[in-house]
Design goal:
- The complex is a heterodimer.
- By secondary structure, chain A is an alpha+beta fold.
- Chain A has an 8-stranded antiparallel sheet.
- The longest helix of chain A is centred in the middle third of the chain and has 33 residues.
- In chain B, helix 13 links the parallel strand 17 and strand 18.
- Chain B folds into 2 domains: 222 residues, Alpha-Beta Complex (Quinone Oxidoreductase, Chain A, domain 1); 162 residues, 3-Layer(aba) Sandwich (Rossmann fold).
- Chain B is α/β, with parallel strands linked by helices.
- Classes of the chains: A alpha+beta, B alpha/beta.
């Protein structure tokens, strides 16, 4: 039911512009060349991966690092990574994400080589040569990734542009078999949001425009911020943004459109997060964080469940417990089933 | 409680597991009094579903007594005797409101996984893999039933378990298969697969006005039941060229409607069978479709192909040219049990249908692993196994 569309966030704010739902169809002329380069890099990944997997000792000798167990293990692991990467590139040669994975791998390789310089058995000349080669390939990977990202156009939002932006942007939509008025008033009471937004712990409403949000962060921490409503067109559109000194700058917009044939409501959500730490923080969050598109898509699925059925759908096997579809262990309780019922 | 758990290909084990609990306000807990093994459970048994995890409780044909209800349940109370439809349906989404219960938009918590494979997610099902929700199944002593006001059907005390147990799946499945055929008085219908669903499809086709029904299988005991109990004509595909025989029987016109009641493990003979088996083994196609292809080729111009048999993924050599050029209609779907079970219960009460004739084995839940083997290998003329917890 939920569909997704990623959008990158650099440049002027497109929210003010007329919206096109199918832009990004045309591609630049350099595309064939980029694809050739990307394929070549894909085969390079596979070749290197096979060598690392099957002949780690020879590779270790070649790049001048000690042939010990730990290095053999590392090289084999790198080999698996290269193989996966290479297959990914060849399977989806237009998807720049794979190229950025290669860049990540290159950085790991450089770190690994640097680390080995400290070993007594290392051959610094060979390591330096290997590092120079990796750096060269890295430059090629970055170039290729960037060009593919640009070809993909703004609307595709994957790859370079999305990675190099300071923001995380999410755009999702869901059809709900309820009237816009009903959904709007549920959402307008921000205290309801934690019922379906899994990362929110609670929202305290301070007055008609202001609220205080508490969200879960990695490693059991929480992040908090004050938010205010910036636009409120009842039953149509609702916008909010965090105020100064927020742990995570963010803003959101939700639109409530009557579905054709009076078949409920099409809900469109756009959210933007700006993680602390500027561009590096954002890149870190994108590389290592949860997939925000998927998270919001799941949130909207739960919203639909809560509004249509009065509860969040749960199956024992869909929850993180040790024995998948088996009945519930006596001491555990599903954390997110309780609030779902209280909101109605 | 005791439950029959899947551990791998041909590896079922009855184990002690924690009792189910009410997790949502619309849930109820059913103490199971009868449960059955479905032909589609054999797809799991034979390892065709990659979304199974060791320890999963299987089973989706079960009935029993309500022993606990969530605080928002209104229509059921403790002590009610119910059959539980195998699709889990919320009753409130657009699909449920259109009586398309098996494609409920809310009941699969793992919808994202199903969307990857199928584009959209259907309903969650009991005991039928994590792709369809990861709900524990009903080959157990107890089961948690979500949306208790929507699914379970109250059963009057004068009816035995065995008379109504198949309202949970196979009787409505056979009925929907026949209903999809849009049968006109005097029609001829051919049914591939004379297992329990095939038998009920034959019965239903007659109930809905067919003049001739032809059952196709290779097991003589199944053909005998189709002939003697369900009054069908029969064809043994191991002994006959099915297409040729059907054309002969229908004057070259072909049956008005065809039903594929065998599904993705349909058995093929000769080159075509070997071809599909090899491709399935190499993961080049997930589903064998011998019966479906044959059915499409046989049905008359403008006829209906009804597919109650379960398919999971992709099939090869699908004769789309025959479908298009000959104006065929394909109708299929997991059964919308809640759409049919009231009506079928009435027919059972009136004595128009007695589904008990297909039961050949009555065993204890403890004996489930053995029962799967017997059913799968068609030993001992096995047609349908009912297990008592």
């Amino acid at each position: 039911m939920a569909t997704q569309e990623a959008r990158h966030a650099r440049g002027p704010d497109r929210r003010q512009q007329p919206r096109s739902w199918d832009d990004g169809g045309h591609r630049g002329n350099g595309q064939a060349g980029d694809e050739r380069l990307s394929r070549a890099l894909g085969w390079f990944s596979i070749g290197l991966g096979l060598a690392e997997l099957t002949a780690p000792n020879a590779v270790a000798r070649l790049i001048g690092i000690p042939e010990d167990d730990s290095n053999r293990r590392m090289l084999r692991a790198f080999g698996m990574r290269e193989l996966a990467n290479g297959v990914g590139i060849l399977a989806q040669p237009r998807e720049s994400g794979w190229m950025w994975a290669r860049v990540g791998g290159d950085l790991m390789d450089l770190a690994f080589l640097g680390n080995n310089l400290r070993s007594d058995e290392a051959q610094p000349n060979r390591i330096a040569a290997a590092a120079a080669a990796v750096a060269g390939v890295t430059a090629l990977d970055v170039l290729c990734g960037q060009r593919m990202g640009q070809d993909g156009g703004e609307a595709q939002g994957t790859g370079a542009n999305r990675l190099w932006s300071r923001h995380i942007d999410v755009r999702q939509t869901v059809a709900i078999n309820r009237k816009p008025e009903e959904i709007y008033s549920f959402w307008r009471d921000f205290r309801n949001l934690p019922q379906f937004m899994s990362h929110l712990e609670r929202v305290d409403v301070q007055d008609d425009r202001r609220s205080h949000w508490v969200a879960k962060a990695p490693a059991g921490r929480t992040v908090e911020w004050d938010a205010e409503v910036t636009e409120d067109q009842p039953n149509q559109r609702l916008c909010w943004r965090s105020l100064e000194r927020a742990d995570v700058d963010n803003s959101g917009e939700v639109r409530f459109e009557r579905a054709p044939g009076d078949r409920g409501t099409i809900l469109r959500v756009e959210m933007r997060y700006t993680p602390p730490g500027g561009i590096f923080g954002a890149i870190g969050a994108k590389l290592f964080g949860e997939e925000p598109q998927m998270q919001v898509r799941d949130d909207l699925r739960r919203l639909k469940q809560v509004l249509e059925t009065g509860e969040v759908t749960v199956a024992e096997g869909s929850m993180a417990i040790t024995h998948p579809a088996q009945a519930w262990a006596p001491h555990t309780q599903p954390a997110h089933t309780q609030p779902a019922d209280s909101g109605r | 409680m005791k439950a029959n758990c899947w551990y791998g290909k041909k590896d079922m084990r009855v184990e002690n597991v924690p009792d189910p609990k009410i997790l949502n306000a619309h849930d109820c807990i059913v103490r199971i009094t009868s449960t059955a093994i479905c032909g589609s459970d054999l797809h799991l048994y034979n390892g065709f579903n990659p979304a199974m995890q060791p320890g999963d409780i299987v089973g989706h044909e079960f009935m029993g007594e309500v022993v606990e209800v969530g605080k928002s349940v209104q229509k059921l109370k403790v002590g009610d005797r119910v059959t539980v439809p195998f699709p889990i349906s919320c009753g409130s989404c657009l699909s449920c409101q259109r009586n398309l219960f098996s494609v409920c938009e809310n009941s699969n918590p793992n919808a994202a996984m199903a969307e990857e494979l199928w584009g959209h997610s259907p309903a969650g099902l009991f005991g039928y893999s994590h792709l369809l929700g990861g709900y524990p199944g009903g080959q157990a002593e107890y089961a948690r039933v979500p949306y208790a006001d929507v699914g379970p059907l109250k059963i009057p005390s004068e009816l035995d378990d065995e008379q109504v147990l198949f309202l949970t799946d196979i009787l409505p499945t056979g009925y929907m298969a026949a209903e999809q055929c849009d049968i006109q008085r005097g029609d001829t219908v051919a049914v591939w697969g004379c297992g329990p669903v095939g038998q009920f499809a034959i019965l239903s086709a007659f109930l809905l006005g067919a003049e001739r029904v032809i059952g196709i299988d290779r097991f003589e005991y199944r053909l005998r039941m189709a002939r003697e109990t369900c009054k069908a004509e029969t064809l043994n595909y191991a002994e006959n060229d099915v297409h040729h025989a059907l054309m002969e029987m229908t004057g070259g016109r072909g049956p008005d409607a065809v039903i594929d009641a065998s599904g993705m493990e349909s058995h093929g003979l000769g080159l075509a069978g070997a071809y599909d088996r090899a491709k399935q083994a190499m993961m080049l196609e997930t589903d064998r479709a011998v019966a479906l292809r044959q059915a499409i080729m046989a049905v008359r111009n403008g006829g209906v192909v009804s597919v109650p048999g379960v398919y999971a993924g992709f099939i090869d050599k699908f004769p789309m040219g025959s479908v298009m050029n000959r104006s065929l209609t394909i109708k299929t779907g997991q059964t919308h049990v809640q759409r049919y079970h009231h009506h079928l219960l009435e027919r059972i009460q009136k004595g128009e249908i007695d589904p008990t004739f297909i039961i050949t084995h009555r065993l204890r839940l403890d004996e489930a692993p053995h029962a799967y083997q017997v059913f799968n290998d068609k030993q001992d003329e096995c047609m349908k196994v009912v297990l008592k917890p």
